[in-house]
Amino acid sequence: xxxxxxxxxxxxxxxxxxxxxxxxxxxxxxxxxxxxxxxxxxxxxxxxxxxxxxxxxxxxxxxxxxxxxxxxxxxxxxxxxxxxxxxxxxxxxxxxxxxxxxxxxxxxxxxxxxxxxxxxxxxxxxxxxxxxxxxxxxxxxxxxxxxxxxxxxxxxxxxxxxxxxxxxxxxxxxxxxxxxxxxxxxxxxxxxxxxxxxxxxxxxxxxxxxxxxxxxxxxxxxxxxxxxxxxxxxxxxxxxxxxxxxxxxxxxxxxxxxxxxxxxxxxxxxxxxxxxxxxxxxxxxxxxxxxxxxxxxxxxxxxxxxxxxxxxxxxxxxxxxxxxxxxxxxxxxxxxxxxxxxxxxxxxxxxxxxxxxxxxxxxxxxxxxxxxxxxxxxxxxxxxxxxxxxxxxxxxxxxxxxxxxxxxxxxxxxxxxxxxxxxxxxxxxxxxxxxxxxxxxxxxxxxxxxxxxxxxxxxxxxxxxxxxxxx
Length: 471
Fold this sequence. Notes:
- By secondary structure, the chain is mostly beta strands.
- It has two domains: 188 residues, Jelly Rolls (Sandwich), CATH 2.60.120; 271 residues, no CATH class.
- The chain contains six helices and 27 strands.
- It is elongated and about 85 Å long.
- The N and C termini lie far apart (74 Å).
């Protein structure tokens, strides 16, 4: 190891790069102290790129330096993923464990870094994305010291089998035209980066249960859903398949029984395209659903796929927490403080990819804490220039992206899925919680390609049925 380290240091000196900061275990990659430090940097231009990104201007600056007297100042011209690239990098990074840098920005935003090795591939597919080391970071206004493991336990990692390091890149998501960011003290460290805690507790609404969401394959909260499934598997029994019409008939019968004790009770069906949901305006057509799918599936190198918005598709994947849609049903027609007597949510499968209904599965409803926009939400942002705290909203602590509670839960069905939604409607109509919708996701034992509010057949669209008594 000492011999390899010495050879790398000599090589760094030969190409004019400063090998060390103040600590012997650090390798300084870029400090931008000399005019010559800018020459190896260019805007990335790919011959097969679908859209050409606006070129970014680079210069040395005496502003925002965190080590030495200068930083790299980048002025962006807009774009989606403008990228700066250089091949002036040390070939052997095997002695170091952690990537570190200081980035100064004027607003919350997302920036990223990529390391290319000899056998790395470009492209948005999984195989290509795992062949290169990439990390995206959610930054706050001001100077952000960042760090990331070069060989993490989960995700894309540097691998000596891919050969020498041959390139390094810096990119930004949706920069504004004329926006400035500053980079300095880009370095490697022999110190291993601390991994984030892999546990989060989730409450189950309507019960006193608390679930421990242990990180499962890099998907925090999946463990809580699996724990809930195992908890209820003992009492699981196969349920006869029901059509949408049969479910509505069943609910109407339940309504008839509840009317005996609650004569002022009202039944409403909240489904896009149907009339009669609002007793004060019986001819008004409901148009209060919204839904949008995005994928938080790893690795981090799939950042272009993660930035896609799919808010207008007729069907959408519904799977685990990192591959499921956001949904929201407008409840404004139900007076705040009403007594919610019963509620049910219906989701219809567009295709039967698996054989659910014959074995126990578990689905949960997790409430969102951000006012997301159907045509703008993706893995990085819930609305334009409004960013999640973590990728895909995986943040449940201070100022959480989602609330650590399951408002509804239950098994899936073969064709028409339904869940008791009473606690969820109570949660949002109590007046204590804003209605920012929810994510429906499962424990991996089931998979759905479900219809959305854009489905051509109205009865295939998702719906919530509610029986309530106005306050």
